[in-house]
Automatic annotation (TrEMBL), chains A, B, C, D:
It holds the Pfam family GFO_IDH_MocA. This is Inositol 2-dehydrogenase. The keyword NAD applies. Gene3D superfamilies: Dihydrodipicolinate Reductase, domain 2, NAD(P)-binding Rossmann-like Domain. It comes from Lichenifustis flavocetrariae. Belongs to the Gfo/Idh/MocA family. The keyword NAD applies. Its EC number is 1.1.1.18. PANTHER family: INOSITOL 2-DEHYDROGENASE, PTHR43593.
Length: 337, 337, 337, 337
């Protein structure tokens, strides 16, 4: 059985996902596309091969009876509409992050999914599918280092484009840690605090950089994450879990060890896309496979909502300089762990 | 277009390849199987799903008009027969290593393929598809370390089963280095010498262990490979290329760094199957893709022949304790680099 | 010229220093000892060889005209008295940490030294003499990573004895980071905050463990230090400085890389004494050499005072859970950088 | 008691040793110097301070009753004469490597020392005093990796000066491995073979580079050493011992780990002097200490002789391309292990 997928949004990430679904992964076909820019949709459809419908609206695509499942890769503000419409149509939907641009909107999706009685929504947090993070989670689950007490992380980009400013270090970069760390340690956050160190000379007036973001979990685990988006030296994701019996660290990406020019070492990636390129493949393959079985194993609407609330709290903590509680609804039994 | 594959030999490696072709990779289907043990073939066919023919002989499978391409995973002594039959039938054939059990037999395959006028044969040396070796080859090709001068390698198994004896350290283990190093440095061997160090107490009287095998290439590169199949501590494949401008080393398999019990370090694999499990996937996926295009990019019949000649020379060098030349036919233009 | 040293306090650390001064280092002799336990002093004197006076009081030792310089290794509450007496006698004095048990007492020493008009006091913070920290400081001074923005540290002991409780994680362990980090980044602290993560099951009710201690410096550098004194796995000191252009990390102690029992790695020390054993030698040798030239290059009375104020602020921050400012006197010109 | 040392040869290494003896180490004084260039001797004497005799000949220095022990750092061809004269005078002598320029001359020294009935001669192979090699030897002695079976080594220099040519890769560079590996594995060599790989473009016509030198020991351990003196990238000494139960590797020199400019790694030394600078200190300090006790614990005249014989055999093996036996006298009981 092939999962026939309709993709809303044929920008960069949309095209990447279409290539995966159509050519690289197994068990799915892209049968319909839509984009606010119809030319983009047409052009993309032409690259897929086969009989691909180009719809005039996301709703029309969702309503297309040939479409078994929907992938939403349109721009963020449209996510809520298309995810809700997919739920209304009873169709599984994979929505790129963010699930919605506000916590309130994410909560509306949560409520709609619960009301539908079926698990339909998955959010595109790909780090959970990274081999390194998975190895780390397995190490924790195996009890190798005992109970987790602290997590030390870093999220570093060599530089960011001009449009990256304001709170984007939180809403665009740190949001990945919000999701993946919660999954990694299987715990929820209760408060946050944001520290702003001395600014790197490489940043601009409209962008604080770096940040240190602290999170406390329900069980008392303390997380500190350095977010440094003009670190100059490379794209570097670090994560170290300190447990009662030992410490486990996310592996460095595989690379050739070189002895050259009086240095012994390995290359650091520069491009974030390369760092998680495989995670995207695994993510969508597992989405195809679980969707066919009528299941959602990936980041859920609840996770999308929790992340949105946490992100909002971090932004507030940054502005106030104070400890800010992270208050979410009680976890619905629908999303029981 | 789906490549319809027939698989001869449904033992362990056959079943692994069938699972890959049928369920994991894209663009292929397993439509026919055969095994000397018909029950095994039947049982395997049942696991595939769909309409799978169970043939009474390898020849019958090869002759099946539904079969586009053949995978030979039967026991070694039968390889020659099935590869030659596939060539005769004009069908692409992927043959697990060894291509044949003697250099003379491998040469008959080479001659048959040349006579057929088409590139049909690929040999299952999977290391060329390992991500680490590919990174290493890219490093060499990029000129990062200049011209290669020496290669230092190790091939270590924690232990070997009782049936592993005699010259198997060469014919079964080192044979992988014979193929992959030739590919890595894009050069041919001209002589070999085998050194037998002090035997580990963990070996048996019928098995010298470890060995150090030396190879010289046409351009003068010197290769030394420690083959140590009762090394006790793990399955460990090392490869270091010393160039004029620096040294490049095969990456360690990705693993979690642990600080625990007064040690800082990483796990070493114990099972060779895990070390190259991805390489098998890549190998067969690329074989599917290139076969559909009528091409052979992987290890060719010529490579299989060259490996057989080298392996024979190493066995002779081990017995004589002397330097033994590696003499092959002139490379046919059919197999031009 | 030999520096004739009198040692007050012949306990464990006193005996270690006496061995160094008498047998291992150059340019000094131990000519007098004193201890509250006269038997200990006598026994220690006998191990030194030569003519060693055993004095009935620290004051008597300080007054001994044969004594050129004083080493204070008695218990902490007596440090102020003997350091002040040494200053009064115009004799250089090396005082093991802490300089005094309160910031007020440390300030009295500062004032006495200033009043004496001569630099006489050095405090025994040995980490500044550790090869790794020195390499790290040289890296920073060379501008290799640009301006420092953040420092991430860990101070981990495998376990602590029963008498270690209350605030000792700050006053006894973290105090080393207080001194060495200030020296490392050549900056002063302005505030601190202490976070108490989930407690390890290995700790006791009378000891919070681990802690995360945050410091802010005058220039805005943010420091976070995990202090985890029941980490179980070993004695492990980590320090990573994040600069505008790169990141520099304290080296691991030198050790043999082993491949054994399915692990690739290195030993982690268990005993803190081994970690800094060479630093003690370097510390005292440099003290001998600079003292002979009438100079003090090591941690000064001012540093001892600054550390005491910082330590007090951290204890307060731990109790209050709040950000606590670190307020010191203006730096006297006597201690100009 | 101070060991009063006379130093014959005030060139570079002589001056280094004089600085160590006079200023850095404990328990020795330099009381006499001699050099074929009297001006050099005079100038050096002036740097030492105190009453230093400048002798007109090495023999005169040896005969000086103030001289307790002799250090020979003159040029190689003069070593035999001064060592024999020291033995004749019954004075301990530390001779920089080589002990003598021929195996026959080294044997004359061995015989003279035996005839004298006293252990007087130590040869300046400093690697035995390197912390890393000592850690490696302790690991072997502790049985951590079981019995040694193979040793893989590399001796790499970034480049060599113009006067370095002919067999110097063996006689000047590899000679260090000859001594230190024999000590490391506590075994003797029985044969050698030398392989000459493709020459680096960085070498000159009068210098083969690199070499691979193979040694076999009495117990069957096989050693391979890559000697590559124009490796370009740095001064790099590698040593890995493969045992029955695991593998132990010489530590890399301590250095700061950097993340910078898309690379993660550590500096490699460029200057061989820095690599073993501490080993020289330890070597001479231990020589002072053991000499005062009338003992020789360092490389003996027998070791110097064994090294000379091995070096000669390697040169012959290089020229012949054949396996060459290493034949030494039976080990005299005087030099029993």
């Amino acid at each position: 059985m092939t999962l026939n997928v309709g993709v809303i949004g044929t920008g960069a990430i949309g095209q990447d996902h279409i290539k995966r679904l159509a050519h690289k992964l197994t068990g799915a076909a892209v049968v319909a596309v839509n984009d606010i820019n119809r030319d983009s949709a047409q052009a993309t459809a032409a690259t897929i091969g086969g009989d691909v419908a180009v719809h005039g609206s996301g709703q029309a695509l969702i309503d297309d009876p040939k479409v078994d499942a929907v992938v939403v890769t349109s721009w963020g503000p449209s996510h809520e509409e298309f995810v809700l419409a997919s739920i209304a149509a009873g169709k599984p939907v994979f929505c790129e992050k963010p699930l919605a641009t506000t916590a309130a909107a994410a909560l509306r999706i949560v409520e709609a999914e619960i009301a539908s009685g079926r698990h339909l929504v998955q959010v595109g947090f790909m780090r959970r599918y990274d081999r390194g993070y998975r190895m780390l989670k397995e190490t924790l689950k195996a009890g190798t280092i005992g109970e987790a007490l602290m997590v030390h992380c870093a999220h570093r980009n060599p530089s960011v484009p001009d449009f990256y400013k304001g709170d984007m270090a939180i809403t665009d970069s740190f949001v990945h840690e919000i999701d993946v760390l919660r999954w990694l340690i299987d715990d929820d956050y209760v408060s946050t605090q944001v520290i702003i160190p001395r600014r790197t000379r490489r940043s601009r007036p409209d962008l604080d950089d770096p940040h240190i973001i602290l999170l406390e979990t329900r069980s008392g685990i303390r997380i500190d994450v350095e977010v440094f988006v003009n670190c100059a030296y490379g794209y570097d994701i670090q994560c170290e879990v300190v447990g009662e019996d030992g410490i486990a660290r996310l592996p460095e990406p595989m690379s050739i060890q070189l002895r050259k020019e009086e240095r012994l070492g390995n290359a650091i990636l520069n491009d974030w896309k390369l760092r998680f390129i495989e995670a995207y493949d695994v993510e969508l393959q597992e989405w195809i496979d679980t969707t066919k079985r009528g299941e959602v194993h990936g980041p859920s609407a609840w996770d999308g909502y929790f992340t949105a609330v946490t992100s909002d709290a971090c932004v507030e903590a940054k502005r106030s300089g104070k400890l800010v509680p992270i208050s979410v609804r009680d976890r619905p039994s629908f999303y029981a762990r």
